[in-house]
Write a structure and sequence with these properties.
Blueprint lengths: L2 H6 L14 H9 L9 H6 L6 H14 L1
Amino acid sequence: MTQSESKTRRPAFIILGAPGSGKGTQGQILGSVPRFFHCACGGVFRSLDTRTALGQSVSDEMAKRVA
């Protein structure tokens, strides 16, 4: 790893927990800290266009998991 690469790499945090346990809240709080980025995978999956094959496949899988 070069010196410039070590300056751009940042640790990643994955917050796991049951629904309603505060994962999103804690992620948003961390996301407001400079140099931290908050990405909620569920939000990314829900934003996929269901008119595409990938979006429809993800939507179908998510529906199975919720039911």
